[in-house]
Amino acid sequence: MKRFEKHIFICENKREEGHPRSCCADKDSSQLKKLFKEKLKQRGLNHIIRANSSGCLDACEFGSAIVIYPEQTWYGNVLPEDVDEIIENHLINGNVVERLKIKEKRFNKDE
Amino acid sequence: MKRFEKHIFICENKREEGHPRSCCADKDSSQLKKLFKEKLKQRGLNHIIRANSSGCLDACEFGSAIVIYPEQTWYGNVLPEDVDEIIENHLINGNVVERLKIKEKRFNKDE
User: Fold this and answer.
1) ipTM rounded to 2 decimals
2) How far is B71 from chain A (nearest CA, A)?
3) Interface contact A2, partner B, CB < 8 A
4) Distance, CA of B92 to CA of A97 (rounded, Å)
5) One digit per residue, pLDDT tens: chain A, 111 residues?
6) What's the pTM value of the predicted model, to 2 decimals?
């Protein structure tokens, strides 16, 4: 295993008000990052699974957007109440959370 | 291929002055990110290789620190003059730039 078994990047990009693409920060992605960090720590997983703030992931239309590596799974419209499901299903058990996957082809196209 | 063939995260975390771990922002990592973005765009690679700002990657002692996915290669003490070599050797030709790899075991340990 490398340093992190899984590395989650949560977009916290903030655009000026009224920008046509909007931004993840306006969809409370900071709270999302906070929750991922807290819950991974509570489970003692934060040394092998890192939740990381990121700048714009160019998935603005799907905010809050996150990407999980090394598999590069893209999730969109992620809400605080989805965090437990992503941790349990994807990060711990290795099962993609289908309902949250970004459906647009250019994202998760070879899965 | 998924959305991005390679995804480079460049730490731009900024800590308060005098913090014992220092921070990548103090080592001009914003300039580094800017250079990666510019040079990838010049080569027409920015749609398949994305340079992304990130929050703290917990590699503060090796700032400016970057990590490249999906392979999770960690580079440290990266300077603006290293950008071309990382693009040419690693991102285009798939050869790790050994001299910039973070040598501490917990980073690139299984390579």
Assistant:
1) 0.94
2) 7
3) yes
4) 32
5) 789 999 999 999 998 988 888 899 989 999 999 999 999 999 999 999 999 999 999 999 998 999 999 999 999 999 999 999 999 999 999 999 999 999 998 898 765
6) 0.95
